[in-house]
Design goal:
Phosphorylase Kinase, domain 1, 7% strand, Transferase(Phosphotransferase), domain 1, alpha+beta, six-stranded antiparallel sheet, 755 residues, elongated, 32 helices
Amino acid sequence: MTPERWKKVQTLFERALELQPGQREAFLRRACAVDAELYREVTSLLEADRTPHSLLEGLALDAVDLPAESDWEGKQVGAYKIIRKIGSGGMGAVFLAERTQGDFEQRVALKLIKPGMDSEDILRRFRSERQILARLQHPNIARLLDGGRNDDGRPYFTLEYVDGEPIDRYCDRQRLTIEQRLQLFQTVCAAMHYAHRNLVVHRDLKPGNILATADGTVKLLDFGIAKMLTPENDGHPSPLPTLTRAGARVLTPEYAAPEQIRGDPITTAADIYALGVLLYELLTGRSPHQFSTRSPAEVERAVLTTEPKKPSTVVTQKQTPAPTDDLPTTEDICAARRILPERLRRRLRGDLDNICLMALREEPERRYSSAEQLLDDIKRHLNGLPVAARPDTLRYRATKFVQRHKIGVASALAVVLLIVALVAFYTVRLAHERDRARLEAQKAEQVADFLQGLFAVADPGQSRGEQITARELLQRGAARIKTELADQPEVQATMMAVIGDVYRSLGLYPEAQRQFEQVVRIRERLYGEAHPDVADAYYRLARVHQDDFDHEAAEAAVGRALAIQKQHFPATAPEVVRSLHLLGQTHYLRGHYETADSIYRAILNGQIEDGTLPEEDRAAILRDYATVQHELGRLDETEQGYRAALRLSRRIHGELHPQVATTLHLLGDVLRHKGDLRAAETFYRQALEMREKLFGEVHPDVGETLNHLARLLYTMGDYDRAEPLARRAHSPSASRCMAKRTWRWWPAAAIWPVF
């Protein structure tokens, strides 16, 4: 069919559509009085237009009587033998074929232009599709393999053969959950973003063009009506054949963007809209727009004049099917997603409602700016983070009103807002400061009264000569807190945190853990699960878990603290940095040295260089960063880091402090590994003396230094001095404290055989 002939057919077709069905017959008889073939072609288009899926494969062009394709099964096309036909579109047919020439076998999808469709416009479009596929190399896009011309001169090309099924059918058959469907949808977004970055707009995204294989791999197909945003033809600028001119729109109505329906210029926003329709269907099992006949006029009316309902609303609504539709019931939809109807509605409400409706906005500029942005919102939703999508409700309509009456609204609103803001600000601030001051004063008074009663047991008049140890004092205090402060939960939580810190400093980790777990529960009950005070309790609990070598629990607790803190503080805040520091320590202790290294480098680059971090935290981070370098074999960097941390710790804390002792011990470690054994012994002995003064003889840190010093002396051959140190490190009194720490540094069996 020539372009002139097609233009005449299309003109009569469109004029007939404007008439009532009963008037069309007479009109066509008059217009085609001398051309019976023209009458038959136009009536075939009208019949195709009445069929529910008349536009499914693109233009109504398929309904025109073109020469029929012969039976291609078993025929040779280039190097390929056709097995069977697997699909047909507006300008070509797709066959399953196998390579019969060459040194290897291969099954492919072979696309061949239809007989009678080899007009210059169609040939250019066919070559355009082949060129587009040649430039797309992505694991989730069916790749171009070969191309050429058949013996009759018709062009063909071969694609990777995808043995799969449409993504929506795959999801339902596999009964994928909402989360699993979102994961699969992310793959589609990533592939589409790749195509857009290569300046390709697909323009016909739909489940039939997105196949999922048995192993869940997604493949994008059919770039037959795709558009290149930068036209190219053998390296020279040349306009590609337009597919959006009047009378030649190629689209699938259920997935066509409003600009495609109107015939406006097409950009990547059209694919974003189609992705929104696909997401809507994967989540709800429904289409965002309902068509009864799918005629052009009805499609245009539905897409351009009605707004899609929220997924959470439509999923439980009973829909009236079109005469040829067999819509699934709500029960079928929920069964395919393994969820109850009410839970599905709640699952979709909120983020997923907003994400779908943002992708489906009528104005292209108000949709997601890219497939990557849509992908990012899906990821953020799955990770429990805020999404970029916002509900299109009163705020948007109010913005439009303001734009129409800018001067009047701005003047009136400015005056009202200024008055309201000033009154509200000072009223709220004064009330808040007053209430806070009262609360803090009450808490301080209650804490003072409690401490006075707690330490009164040390009075000789009450103790009656009995010696009260610090541990006994803590145990009595913990018992009193639980009973006497039960009606004052804020004070109770504060005192439990104080006692938990003291327990931890004494190495009594189970007791400290119990205190902080109670603090978490009390504060969550008081403030909710996302309050900074709850994050502080989780941070303290994580430190205890780490000290007790339960690194998995420590990582979970500090991760929870970080998630809360990042909602309230900037990345440079001390609270966030301390939690990151603890997370780095946890990864180090679990042997994840590269991860710990990256965390410490991020802290150092963001905090220490700009001087915003307190010196005490800075010294600890320098020390722990150097320890990670030690594990990575960077001994010179390790020694430099420890010496810098030691200077800073002494300036902050003086000569007698746990941090100073720890740094001395670590300097001994790195010097021992570098072979400077005498210098290492000096640092170990300084650390041991300091730790014994600070903690007594039964403490994990004391046992650790004893163990390392004994090992050093054993290496030097000084067995007489090594033996008593090793025996002390592994004595029964120290066994409980050292049980978890000794294994990591140096098993006892490594030195016992020499004694």
